[in-house]
């Protein structure tokens, strides 16, 4: 039987001999704690990359080598997955592993704007991300339905623009204490938080607090169609929006008050962000004049740079005058339209890189199949676990130079996901697909669907034993 490791390491060499028997009582402890307690030697090896590690297990114990805390942390995550039940108790089979990631950016986007998700859910998700060696949690903090972060420079945003969600349910926002708790938890798990303030579209909620900043909603036939299909009514200025339509809202580009707002909000968010990335949105601004769009997105990016951070934007922002080094996040299909591909290439042409989030593969809010109770199907129909795995980041945008792709980020939009149970059901196991694509070597016997499916089946079994409501479709599809 193959080792049940996800993501699959760069090099795995089974060893001869008896397994390592863990101490009596291990079954009552968490796998990670049990594995860590059996480490007999851990040493520094400057020749290893920051996230790389070596791991040797035999009957005598466990030896870990790493050059930095990240590598040691990943070694422990691998050890936790190696713990298994043997005939005589809990064991780890003898093995030598040499490992390092393919890409530095391995992430998950959680939308807390359409439905608010509390600190407890986000902290739980950070724990699970660390198990899969993910490095970035991108929080989509603002959208038409709500503003989810307390801003001392603009307190009205939390007071007036956070009270509801899709479907009219309760809203919510993170206080400063909440945000500090999330940052601390993320740091302990080796994960960087990436806040997103989406603009100039997806800004209807801003108008609830500052009506002078937002243009009247642009109600198109597509907005009417979505309202007819999903409910929520048509957007009206000054009225909370609880529907699913997109593209109707916009900031009033060119107004001095809007520029002041961007300086206040983005400057404060940058000050609250210890990591190097701040996301400025830029997607689906269908109600904004193209020239105005380019002007405002360019200004927002300049403000982020002025505060010492690197701006990230959805790939549409490639048509704006972004500073060199800005990061693009591609959300088109695995076979992109010419327009989407051109916009993505523009980031690379300016010295930037791309995070790949193809919506028909790693948008975790897509249904698994037509019968899935939660989720949507707009990204070329349902996304099975198999489809979430069978793609490669370097193949999506033809003609990119080496190093243009900095990583992979799955995305969990929450129009239909109201609580942690929904997060669990939709993210697991497909988040594991994104994690392996981002970490593991591109090719090899284990980097094919049949082998991944077998390993993932074991991970699903263990998740479910640990109380995670992981989707069992992987066992039968």
UniProtKB/TrEMBL annotation:
<feature type="domain" description="Beta-hexosaminidase bacterial type N-terminal">
    <location>
        <begin position="29"/>
        <end position="100"/>
    </location>
</feature>
<dbReference type="InterPro" id="IPR017853">
    <property type="entry name" value="GH"/>
</dbReference>
<dbReference type="Pfam" id="PF00728">
    <property type="entry name" value="Glyco_hydro_20"/>
</dbReference>
<dbReference type="InterPro" id="IPR025705">
    <property type="entry name" value="Beta_hexosaminidase_sua/sub"/>
</dbReference>
<dbReference type="InterPro" id="IPR015882">
    <property type="entry name" value="HEX_bac_N"/>
</dbReference>
<dbReference type="InterPro" id="IPR029018">
    <property type="entry name" value="Hex-like_dom2"/>
</dbReference>
<feature type="domain" description="Glycoside hydrolase family 20 catalytic">
    <location>
        <begin position="103"/>
        <end position="441"/>
    </location>
</feature>
<comment type="similarity">
    <text>Belongs to the glycosyl hydrolase 20 family.</text>
</comment>
<keyword id="KW-0378">Hydrolase</keyword>
<dbReference type="InterPro" id="IPR015883">
    <property type="entry name" value="Glyco_hydro_20_cat"/>
</dbReference>
<protein>
    <recommendedName>
        <fullName>beta-N-acetylhexosaminidase</fullName>
        <ecNumber>3.2.1.52</ecNumber>
    </recommendedName>
</protein>
<dbReference type="Pfam" id="PF02838">
    <property type="entry name" value="Glyco_hydro_20b"/>
</dbReference>
<keyword id="KW-0326">Glycosidase</keyword>
């Amino acid at each position: 039987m193959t080792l049940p490791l996800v993501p699959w390491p760069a090099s795995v060499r089974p060893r001869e001999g008896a397994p390592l028997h863990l101490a009596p009582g291990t079954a009552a402890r968490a796998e990670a704690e049990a594995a860590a307690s059996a480490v007999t030697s851990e040493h520094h090896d400057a020749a290893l990359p920051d996230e790389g590690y070596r791991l040797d297990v035999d009957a005598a114990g466990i030896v870990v080598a790493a050059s930095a805390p990240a590598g040691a942390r990943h070694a422990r995550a691998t050890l936790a997955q190696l713990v298994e039940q043997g005939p005589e108790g809990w064991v780890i089979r003898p093995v030598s592993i040499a490992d390092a990631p393919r890409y530095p950016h391995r992430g998950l986007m959680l939308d807390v704007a359409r439905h608010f998700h509390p600190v407890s859910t986000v902290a739980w998700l950070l724990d699970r991300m660390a198990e899969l060696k993910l490095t970035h949690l991108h929080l989509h903090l603002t959208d038409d339905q709500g503003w989810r972060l307390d801003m001392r420079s603009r307190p009205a945003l939390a007071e007036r623009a956070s009270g509801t969600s899709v479907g009219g349910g309760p809203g919510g926002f993170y206080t400063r204490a909440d945000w500090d708790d999330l940052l601390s938890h993320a740091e302990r798990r080796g994960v960087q938080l990436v806040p997103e303030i989406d603009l100039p579209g997806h800004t209807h909620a801003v108008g609830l607090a500052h009506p002078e900043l937002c243009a009247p909603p642009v109600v198109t036939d597509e907005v009417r169609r979505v309202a007819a299909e999903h409910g929520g009514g048509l957007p009206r200025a000054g009225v909370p929006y609880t529907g699913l339509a997109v593209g109707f809202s916009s900031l009033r580009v060119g107004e001095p008050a809007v520029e002041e707002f961007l300086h206040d909000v983005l400057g404060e968010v940058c000050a609250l962000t210890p990591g190097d990335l701040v996301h400025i949105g830029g997607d689906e601004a269908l109600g904004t004049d193209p020239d105005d769009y380019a002007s405002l997105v360019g200004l927002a990016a300049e403000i982020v740079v002025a505060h010492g951070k690197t701006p990230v934007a959805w790939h549409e922002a490639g048509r704006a005058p972004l500073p060199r080094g800005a990061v693009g996040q591609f959300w088109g299909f695995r076979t992109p339209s010419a327009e989407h591909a051109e916009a993505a290439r523009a980031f690379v042409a300016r010295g930037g890189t791309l995070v790949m989030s193809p919506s028909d593969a790693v948008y975790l809010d897509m249904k698994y199949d037509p019968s899935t109770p939660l989720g949507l199907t707009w990204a070329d129909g349902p996304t099975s676990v198999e489809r979430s795995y069978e793609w490669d980041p370097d193949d999506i945008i033809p003609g990119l130079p080496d190093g243009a792709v900095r990583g992979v980020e799955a995305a969990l939009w929450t129009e239909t996901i109201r609580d942690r149970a929904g997060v669990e059901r939709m993210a697991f196991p497909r988040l594991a697909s994104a994690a392996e694509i981002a970490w593991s070597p591109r090719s090899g016997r284990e980097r094919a669907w049949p082998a991944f499916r077998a390993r993932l089946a074991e991970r699903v079994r263990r998740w479910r034993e640990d109380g995670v409501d992981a989707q069992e479709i992987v066992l039968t599809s």
